[in-house]
Design brief:
Layout: H1 5-18, H2 22-40, H3 49-60, H4 65-79, H5 89-100, H6 124-137, H7 146-158, H8 162-174
Helix pairs in contact: 1-2, 1-3, 3-4, 4-5, 5-6, 6-8, 7-8
Length: 203
C-alpha cells in the first residue's frame, strides 16, 4: 500500500534533508512528528533515533539560532529530563547545542574518544554523534584519530548506515581527521549539514 500519513511526511522530510533543503525538511518533520505524537499519545520517542538525528541536523544546519534553540528544546524533551546527563544520547546533543547558544560551558569529555567505541555495534550512533557535534560546534574531539574515525565509517558502511557514514566523513574532514575513505556503493552522498566555520552565537 505504500507510505501514507505521518510516515510519508517523514520520508519526504528525509529526502529534503538529503538534498540540503533544511528549512523545508524541518516543516515536514514537524508535521509528521505532531501527527505521530497525537496518534501515540506520547511526546517522547515518537521518532526512531536515526530519523530524529536527521531532524536535529536539519535544524543545526541552518544559520538561524532560533533553529538551534528548537533543536535544543527537542533534545531535552527526548532525554526525559530538564537537566539531562551530557553523557547520554540526547543529553549530549542538548549539552553541546546549549554551549553554542551560550547557555552552558562545554564538557569536552562528551566529545572524547573512548576505547573501541567505533567497534561496538550498539555504540556506532553514539560514536558518530561525538564527531558530528564536535565539527558543528567547532570544538576538538579529544583522543580521536584518523584510524578510529575510519574504523567508525567502515562499520557504518557495513551496516548500510550510509548517510551517517557520509556525515561522519564530513565531520572528520572539518576536524582534520581525514581525508577518510568512503564507499557509498555508487549512491550519491547526502548534503553536508556543515556550512562554513561559524562563531558561537551570543544573545
Amino acid at each position: 500500500k505504500g507510505l501514507h500519513g505521518p510516515s510519508l511526511s517523514l520520508f519526504e522530510a528525509a529526502e529534503l534533508a538529503f538534498q540540503g533543503q533544511w528549512v523545508a525538511a524541518v516543516v515536514l518533520f514537524e508535521q509528521g512528528l505532531k501527527d505521530i505524537r497525537k496518534a501515540a499519545g506520547a511526546r517522547r520517542g515518537a521518532l526512531p533515533d536515526e530519523i530524529a538525528r536527521i531532524y536535529v541536523l536539519s535544524l543545526l544546519a541552518q544559520e538561524d539560532p532560533k533553529a538551534w534553540a528548537a533543536a535544543h528544546k527537542f533534545c531535552i524533551a527526548e532525554s526525559g529530563s530538564r537537566k539531562p546527563s551530557p553523557h547520554e544520547l540526547w543529553g549530549r546533543w542538548a549539552h553541546v547545542i546549549g554551549t553554542r547558544l551560550g547557555e552552558d560551558s562545554l564538557d569536552e569529555s562528551t566529545l572524547a574518544y573512548q576505547h573501541a567505541l567505533e567497534a561496538r555495534e550498539h555504540s556506532l550512533g553514539h560514536a558518530s554523534d561525538r564527531l558530528l557535534l564536535a565539527a558543528w560546534a567547532g570544538k576538538p574531539a579529544p583522543g580521536w584519530t584518523e584510524t578510529a574515525a575510519q574504523g567508525l565509517v567502515s562499520r557504518l558502511q557495513q551496516g548500510q548506515q550510509l548517510w551517517l557514514a557520509a556525515w561522519v566523513v564530513a565531520a572528520a574532514d572539518r576536524l582534520e581527521l581525514g581525508p577518510l575513505a568512503l564507499d557509498l556503493g555508487g549512491r550519491a552522498a547526502p548534503a553536508s549539514f556543515l556550512s562554513g566555520p561559524r562563531e558561537a552565537w551570543r544573545p
